[in-house]
Amino acid sequence: MIDIDPENLTNQERYKLLIGSVLPRPIAFVSTLSQDGIPNLAPFSFFTGLCSTPLMIGFSPMRRGSDGEKKDTLRNIEETGEFVVQIVSEGIVEAMNQTAAEYPPEINEFEMAGLTPIPSTKVRPYRVKESPIQMECILHQIVPLGDGIGSANWVIGRVVEIHIAPEVYQEGRIITAQLKPVARLAGNSYARTTDTFDLERPTIQPVASTH
After folding, report:
1. Residue 89 contacts by C-beta under 8 Å, 6 or more apart in sequence?
2. Residue 119 and residue 123: Cα distance in Å, rounded?
3. Dist. CA 184–CA 190, nearest whole Å
4. Which of 6-15, 63-72, 151-160 is the least confident region?
5. What's the number of CA atoms in the CB half-sphere (13 Å) around residue 98?
6. Is residue 210 scored above 70 in pLDDT?
7. 74 pLDDT exceeds 80?
8. Is position 198 within any domain?
């Protein structure tokens, strides 16, 4: 084994180890609205579900690598307390990638990516029409994680409304084969879920007493 103390690495070296080890990572395609009403859309691959009651999800927008400043997504959430998380399917992965550039705050990423903004029902930020799953969220908590380049904020949102394309939702379950989600790997690489397998979770049988 190779033993590495992360404190002896540069920020870039730590980042490469992190994204190359923790994978595949689902992508939170997050739409927000500034206080001035400018739509913003950006992908984040540090993303997961947190609990079902209440229904909570979380994602981590890292600070900009160029100057350590907060990204527009985080600023908008701090100002408005609302956001929408879209699931990225194969059909919109290239459009999602277009929004990954560091556009200035006045740029509407929906227009840059050719995606369709549609009104949400319980929050102000727009949804991405082309995404098969859209989750409207109210901010629950922001947890700061460090400061400056390489740091981040863990954003926890309470899901208040879910919109699901009918072809991916059957009998209360999401059909992965129809959803066709895309996951993030390291560098410029992504992964599909076309090669899957099942494992039944084991159950522990009670041991008979010998007394």
Report:
1. 131, 132, 179, 180, 181, 182
2. 9
3. 5
4. 63-72
5. 13
6. no
7. yes
8. no
Between 66 and 77, whose confidence is greater?
A: 77
The domain of 65 spans 26-185
- Say if residue 135's pLDDT is above 80: yes
SS3 content of the chain, % helix, strand, coil (to 5): 20, 35, 45
CB 30, CB 57: distance < 8 Å = no
Q: How many residues does the chain have?
A: 211
197 domain-assigned: no
Structurally, how many domains does the chain consist of? 1
> Is the pTM for the entire model greater than 0.85?
yes
The CATH number that applies at residue 76 is 2.30.110.10
The answer to the question of residue 209 being in a domain is no
Q: Which amino acid is at 195?
A: D
Q: Residue 195 falls within a domain, yes or no? A: no
